[in-house]
Amino acid sequence: MTEPHPKAIFITGGASGIGRATAQLFAARGWRVGLADVDAAGLAETAAALPAGMASTYHMDVRDRAAWVTALDAFTATSGGRLDVLFNNAGIGSGGPLADTDFNELDRVIAINLMGALNGARIGHAYLRRTPGSCLLNTSSASAIYGSAGLVPYSMTKFAVRALSEGLDGEWAADGIKARAILPSFIDTPLLASPAAGSNRSIRETVTAAGLELTPVEAVAEAAWTAVHGGKVLTYVGKTAHRMAFAARWMPGKLRQMMRRGAR
Fold first, then answer.
1. With 90 as the cut, is the pLDDT of residue 115 above it?
2. For residues 103 and 105, what is the distance between their CA atoms, to the nearest angstrom?
């Protein structure tokens, strides 16, 4: 017996990268997809790559709380009230020495990566609790396993997203809502081409200088599916993430040395 409405996922940062790959995977498996982003052109490209009638787009900034309500109201109106997964995925990269980073850049990273995720969780709770077995899925990072030299503001926000996921998995259990986080290694998307704050290097160059590998975006989408359907709060994605998790537990001194080398 089929459900009257397919399962539904709302994805921020859906215009490219992890968001687009996740949208393609979930739509291919029969889910209705809501795509949100500040990049209207990218949203249209993602939607065009999905099966006809399976996606709707919402031009919104995760810092805008009123826009969250408007978008989730509109999306759940198309899904018969369902919100099986809210994927807090939107984020920006930022790198370079903290001492040289402009305060406006610090504010922007925290507002988008941290407050954007908090906004999604706080506002999304009312929608998730209406769908039994729903899940808040957050994009954290391998940078949340051990603080990353040269990426400190970014790493700090991703540690916070990890804490958000761990805390809400306990807090929301009584409401029948799971909280999950994926912790991918750094992903080779256009985001990494951005210049590192206070540095002549790109974020990609900062990452590779620290000895970290890049993970295919398709692997992250599969990990998102696994996280939503599995029992673990944290899902590590890619060789670098798994190595860092092992080292953080068993060889913290080695990890510390690696970060010091990367900072040089």
1. yes
2. 5
Going by C-alpha positions, the residue among 20, 54, 53 that lies closest to residue 36 is: 20
Residue 10: the pLDDT is 98
Of residues 58, 127, 146, 154, which has the active-site annotation?
A: 154
* Residue 213 domain boundaries: 8-263
> What percent of the chain has a predicted confidence (pLDDT) above 70?
82
The pTM for the full model equals 0.88
What DSSP designation does 144 have? G
3-state secondary structure of 248: helix
Is 146 part of the annotated catalytic residue set? no
- How many CB atoms are closer than 10 A to CB 127? 22
CA distance 230 to 180: 9
Q: Which pLDDT value is given to residue 142?
A: 85
Q: Does residue 2 sit within a domain?
A: no
**Count of domains forming the chain:** 1
* Nearest alpha-carbon partner for 183 in 231, 108, 233: 233
State the Cα angle at 221 between 118 and 124, rounded to 5°: 25
Specify burial of residue 111 (Cβ count, 10 A radius: 0-12, 13-18, 19+).
middle
Cβ neighbours of 106 (radius 10 Å): 16
pLDDT digits (tens, 9 = 90+) for 214-239: 788 999 999 999 999 999 999 999 77
CB neighbours (10 Å) of residue 260?
11
CATH number at residue 249: 3.40.50.720
